[in-house]
Design brief:
heterodimer; A: mainly alpha; two-stranded antiparallel sheet; 69% helix; B: 181 residues; alpha+beta; Alpha-Beta Plaits; two-stranded antiparallel ribbon; 5 strands; 13% strand; elongated
Chain lengths: 350, 181
C-alpha cells in the first residue's frame, strides 16, 4: 500500500512537471504567434507545421551558445540566480488540484501532488522566494544595468505582494480555508468565486502581472532603459532558464487564477457526469476544462502584453501602493460587513 | 473667427492638461478599449507575403540590373561616348574607349567602342538616368529580379563588361523573334 502510494504520487509529480514544462515551452511559441496575429502578421511558420517545432529550435540554439561568465565577484551566485528563478516557478505547481480524482487500478488517484491545508500561504512563500532569483542574478552579474533591473524587480514584486496578499484575505474570509482542493470543491457547478469577489479578482490579476514581470509591469527588463535588465549578462541556457521561468510562472499564475476564481476543474453538470457517465470521463473532462481556463488566461497575459505600453516606474508604484492596496482593504471591509450581516441574520433566525 | 479657432485640416484639437478623473486614473476603461482594438486585429486578414513562395508584385516602372545591349547581328551598341557616366548622379560609371579594328566589325556596331565599361554597384542608385542619356540605346535597366549578390570584397561589386554585356545567344534569339514578327 505504501509503495503504491509513493508510485502514484511520483507519477503525478512527474506528469505535472512535464506538463508545466511543455506548457511553458509552447507559451513561448504562443506568445510569438499571438504577438504576430495582434499585429496583422503570421509569426513563426517555418519550423514544423505552423512553427510548432520552433520552441525546440530555440532551445537547441540556447544550448549551443557560448557559456559566458562576466568578471563577477561570485560565480556561484551567478549560477544560483537562474536556478532559483526556475525552481520557484516550478515548485508552485505542487499544491494545485488538476482534477478531482481518477479511478484506476482499483485505486482512487488524487490528481494533486499534495493537498496541504496552507496551500495559499505556500504559494505566497514560494513566490516571494522568486524575488531572490532575480535579485541574486542581477547582483552577481556585476553590471549596473543588471543591478538596477534587479532592484526594480525586487521592489516591484515586494510592493505588489502586499496588494496581492490583501486581495486574497477577502477571498479567504469567504472560503474559510486555504486548501486549494477545498476551494475548488466549494466552487462546484457555476458557483465561481469571481462572482462573489470581482474586486479581489481584479486586484489579484493586476498583481499577478507584476509578480510574473509581464508587460505592462516588465520594468525589470525594459530594453529601452536597462538593456536586458537583470539577465543582461546571461547567455546560453542560464539565460534560457530565466526566460523559461517567466513563462512557467505565467502558466502557474494562470492556473492559480483559474483555481481560485474560476472554479478550477469544475464545470456545470460535473456531478451528473460522475453519476451517469463515469468518474474517469467526468474528471478527464474536468482537467480539459481547467486547461481551457488556463489557456485563456495565458492568452490574456499575451493579449495585454501586446496592447498596453509599459508603465513608468512612478506610475507603477502609485498604482500598487495608492490604488490597489486601499482598494483591497476596502474590499476586505465590504466582505467582512456582508459576512457579519449573514451571521447576524442566521443568529436571529431569518 | 479668430486665428486660434481656424482648422484647415479639420483635425485640430485643443490640448488639455486637465486632471484625470478617478475612473481614468484606474486606467481600466482605457485598457479594455485597447484590448478590444487589438482583438479586432487578431481576426483581421494578415498582411504577410510568404516570401520565397510568394513574391510581391513589382511596379510597372521597376528598374533592375543594367545590361549593355547588342543589336540584331550581335554587335555591341555602346560607342563609349560617356554620356551615361556624365548623367550618372552617383558617379558609378567609368569606361575606357578604344578604336574598332578592321577585323572587329562583327563585334562592335560603331567605330569606337568601350574597351572597359564598369558600374560600381555600391554606388549605383538604379535611377535609370544612364538609360535616358544613352543616344545609342546601349545601356538599359532590365526587369531582372536578380539583385546584386552580397560579397566580402568591395571589388566584387564593380561590374565589368563580363557581367553587363547582353549574352550573344540572347541577342540572336531577339533578332530571330524580330524576324518572325
Amino acid at each position: 500500500m505504501e509503495s503504491a502510494f509513493i508510485i502514484e504520487k511520483s507519477v503525478v509529480i512527474v506528469v505535472v512537471f512535464a506538463v508545466t514544462m511543455i506548457m511553458a515551452m509552447y507559451s513561448t511559441w504562443a506568445e510569438r504567434k499571438v504577438a504576430a496575429f495582434l499585429q496583422d502578421r503570421i509569426g513563426p511558420n517555418r519550423a514544423g507545421w505552423g512553427g510548432l517545432l520552433q520552441p525546440l529550435a530555440d532551445g537547441m540554439k540556447l544550448f549551443s551558445k557560448e557559456e559566458f561568465f562576466p568578471n563577477t565577484p561570485n560565480r556561484f551566485l551567478f549560477v544560483v540566480g537562474p536556478a532559483i528563478a526556475m525552481s520557484t516557478a516550478l515548485m508552485t505547481s505542487a499544491v494545485i488540484p488538476w482534477g478531482d480524482r481518477l479511478h484506476l487500478f482499483g485505486r482512487d488517484i488524487i490528481l494533486q501532488a499534495t493537498d496541504v491545508n496552507i496551500a495559499l500561504l505556500y504559494i505566497f512563500g514560494v513566490l516571494s522566494v522568486g524575488v531572490y532569483g532575480i535579485m541574486i542574478g542581477g547582483w552577481a552579474s556585476n553590471n549596473k544595468f543588471s543591478l538596477m533591473g534587479a532592484v526594480r524587480a525586487a521592489s516591484q514584486m515586494v510592493s505588489y505582494e502586499v496588494a496581492m496578499g490583501l486581495s486574497m484575505i477577502a477571498l479567504l474570509m469567504m472560503t474559510g480555508t486555504m486548501s486549494l482542493k477545498e476551494i475548488s470543491l466549494q466552487q462546484q457547478g457555476m458557483n465561481w468565486n469571481v462572482f462573489y469577489q470581482p474586486l479581489s479578482f481584479l486586484i489579484f490579476l493586476i498583481c499577478s502581472f507584476a509578480e510574473t514581470n509581464r508587460t505592462p509591469f516588465d520594468l525589470a527588463e525594459c530594453e529601452s532603459e536597462l538593456i536586458g535588465g537583470y539577465h543582461t549578462e546571461y547567455s546560453s541556457m542560464k539565460m534560457g532558464f530565466y526566460l523559461f521561468a517567466e513563462y512557467a510562472s505565467m502558466f502557474i499564475s494562470a492556473t492559480i487564477i483559474s483555481v481560485l476564481f474560476f472554479g478550477g476543474y469544475n464545470y456545470p453538470g460535473m456531478q451528473w457526469m460522475v453519476e451517469n457517465v463515469g468518474v474517469n470521463t467526468a474528471n478527464l473532462l474536468g482537467i480539459a476544462v481547467l486547461f481551457v481556463k488556463i489557456c485563456f488566461f495565458i492568452f490574456f497575459y499575451m493579449w495585454v502584453r501586446w496592447t498596453i505600453p509599459r508603465f513608468r516606474y512612478d506610475q507603477l508604484m502609485n498604482l500598487g501602493w495608492r490604488i490597489l492596496i486601499p482598494l483591497s482593504i476596502v474590499n476586505i471591509m465590504i466582505t467582512g460587513a456582508v459576512i457579519l450581516r449573514h451571521d447576524i441574520a442566521a443568529a436571529l433566525g431569518f | 473667427m479668430s486665428i486660434e479657432t481656424i482648422s484647415l485640416s479639420g483635425r485640430k484639437k485643443v490640448v488639455s492638461n486637465k486632471d484625470m478623473t478617478f475612473l481614468e486614473r484606474l486606467y481600466l476603461v482605457a485598457i479594455v478599449k485597447g484590448l478590444l482594438i487589438t482583438i479586432k486585429h487578431f481576426f483581421r486578414k494578415k498582411a504577410t507575403i510568404h516570401y520565397p513562395e510568394q513574391e510581391r508584385e513589382r511596379s510597372a516602372v521597376y528598374r533592375g540590373q543594367h545590361m549593355l545591349k547588342r543589336d540584331e547581328q550581335g554587335r555591341e551598341n555602346c560607342t563609349a561616348c560617356g554620356l551615361c557616366a556624365l548623367s550618372c548622379p552617383a558617379e558609378a560609371i567609368t569606361m575606357k574607349a578604344a578604336e574598332r579594328k578592321a577585323d572587329e566589325k562583327h563585334l562592335y556596331r560603331e567605330e569606337k567602342y568601350a574597351e572597359i565599361y564598369e558600374i560600381n554597384m555600391l554606388r549605383c542608385i538604379f535611377c535609370g538616368l544612364c538609360e535616358e542619356a544613352c543616344p545609342k540605346d546601349a545601356i538599359y535597366l532590365t526587369e531582372s529580379k536578380v539583385l546584386v549578390p552580397a560579397s566580402y570584397e568591395r571589388e566584387d561589386f564593380i561590374f565589368g563588361k563580363d557581367k553587363l554585356v547582353m549574352p550573344l545567344e540572347m541577342a540572336l534569339k531577339n533578332s530571330q523573334l524580330n524576324n518572325a514578327n
